[in-house]
Amino acid sequence: MCVKGLYFLAVLSGLAASGVLQVSGMRIYTSGDMEAVNGTDVRLKCTFHSSSAINPSSIVISWSFRPLKPGREESVFHYQQKPYPPVDGIFRKRVQWAGDVMGRDASIILTQVKFTYNGTYICMVKNPPDVHGSVGEIRLRVVTTASFSELLLLALAIGGGIAAVVFLLIIILSCRRCKKRRQRQHEGSEEAPRKERKDPTAW
Questions:
Q1: Among 45, 57, 158, 192, which one has the highest count of C-beta atoms within 10 angstroms of its own C-beta?
Q2: Strand order, beta sheet including 32-37
């Protein structure tokens, strides 16, 4: 068994040396499921990792949209040396580039989302010669109002901010009171010897 194990390891090391087991390909990371309120802006986050050095002149980023209801897939955005927003379709004048190629960020922003934007958004990145790999998908749900969890987070954030301001005011007022108390004590200690000097009946 030991001999076979050593032989297997030797074969693996030989394959790795020849490049067969070299890890390559494009890896894309997205936020998965998202929710956005109708009429608001939403950032579709997509980051990537390439086994090749980033070449800003040849990297290609493309976003496409697959609706929930049966329908054709539609182009959302294209990047090649510079952003190319769609010139027609439901996303015309509704997409902004929010990424950074050298920072391995391929994110976009959808402005004033509508209910027709419900569906799956697909992020694809090619960095020649690294053109193979997985794609990133984001399932967006456009709703009338924010979900309870989002409202709760918003309430907690507002409550935390108010609590911090109140706490800061309490500290400031306490410091002022301490300062005034010290001043009174200091003034009292200075007046006492003056009164003793002015008293002519003291023997």
A1: 45
A2: 32-37, 136-143, 119-126, 60-67, 74-79, 83-84
Identity of residue 113: V
What is the rounded average pLDDT of the residues 31-59?
94
User: What band does 72 get if pLDDT is binned at 50, 70 and 90?
Assistant: confident
Q: Which residue has the tokens 């006492």?
A: 192
Please identify which residue in the block is written with the tokens 């329908």.
71
Point out which residues pair with 27 in neighbouring strands: 49
Chain centre to alpha carbon of residue 52:
25
Give the confidence band of 9 by pLDDT, cuts at 50, 70, 90.
very low
CA 198 centroid distance within chain: 73
Q: 168-196 b/e with 16+ CB inside 10 Å = b? A: eeeeeeeeeeeeeeeeeeeeeeeeeeeee
Listed in order, strand segments (DSSP E) in the chain are: 27-30, 32-37, 42-44, 46-49, 60-67, 74-79, 83-84, 95-97, 108-110, 119-126, 136-143
